[in-house]
Amino acid sequence: MRMKEAQFELIKQQLRKLTSIPGGFYQKKFEGIDIEAIQSQEDFERLPFSWKGDLREAYPLGLQAVPDSEIVRIHSSSGTTGTPVIIPYTRRDIEDWAIMFKRCYETAGLTPLDRVQITPGYGLWTAGIGFQTGAELLGCMVIPMGPGNTDKQLRMMQDLKATVLCATSSYALLLAEEIAKRGITDQIHLKKGIIGSERWGEKMRKRIAAELGVQLYDIYGLTEVYGPGIGMSCDYECGMHYWNDYIYCEIVDPKTGEIVPDGEIGELVITTLRKEGAPLIRYRTHDLTRFLSGDCPCGLSYPRIDTLIGRTDDMIKVKGVNIFPSQIDELLGTVEGASSEYQVMIDHLGGRDILTLFVETNPGVDKGELERGIKFRFKEKIGISIACKPVEIGDLPRSEKKSTRIFDNRY
Known about the structure:
Number of strands: 21
GO biological process, one term: phenylacetate catabolic process
GO molecular function, one term: nucleotide binding
Family: Belongs to the phenylacetyl-CoA ligase family.
Shape: globular
Domain AMP-dependent ligase C-terminal: 320-410
Structural class: alpha/beta
CATH superfamily of the largest domain: ANL, N-terminal domain
Pfam family, one: AMP-binding
């Protein structure tokens, strides 16, 4: 993907500013590099990457690139896997984020007449408040529920006639199942679902869309780069448009760091073009995707990346074979009778690895036949023998946030 002249000029401005901050994160990161010698996209692509480890080392406010007087808000990653990443925002950062989020809603066809029920979390996490400010900027009625309390969620959804649900795919599925269980489908007015925060398979997408009776849209983002709202799928479900006047994207080989040809899968790398509080240069997201070429049928001129297939740090190695959750999603999507929900347990017993795949099954399915079919396809498509345990729909746990699907008990 070629860099536009306007993007290059914004990047040069960022580089000059960031390397002039005494003791600043990027002044140290780019020590010994002549910023003025960067005169082309190829020069820029020789700059070192930044990654989450850098950001953790900068805890709490080492990334801050403006005076304290200009910081109006703090957000943070969950910190569940180590030191949290703290991201400071200026007033302009907040406004820019809302503008991008408004574009996401407009891409999904929302208008000020929509009523948007927001179930992702509020607080230090970026999700809830990001969904809210974008909807308010568009002029929608916002129902800021946050996660949990499913009884109240469904009551508000019915009484306030919400037309749009914002949720993780896991919680959207939980709500869809509860609506069906309670027999209140005819009292639900949802038309669209905007789903983010976790990767989800095609089978799960179809279940949620069918059970809620909605059109679904993927929204993309990460705490380090504003939050959700930097990319969005459209009605045609052919990848996600990203706002290239605010972020510059590259896709690199996860092992070598070299740029991959357009259309090939690699790791998404993001540079912020306008961010003030905590700009990022060549930030490795760990998300795996590819650029999609050609014009989108929706008419938007913004470029597209494909729906995420997984993360570089999601990969598990069993019996010498690298396995991504997306491969399991794809495999189960071809198995008639298998539902969308599964869990993987990996153990090391008797000197060898054992992978057990628990799969929820549709009503009336012959579980023995399904088990044999899944084991055969797993060996054929992924390359290892597994144990398979078909279970009833609802037997596997549901989550109000993100679902954990893989449990590695070997370590």
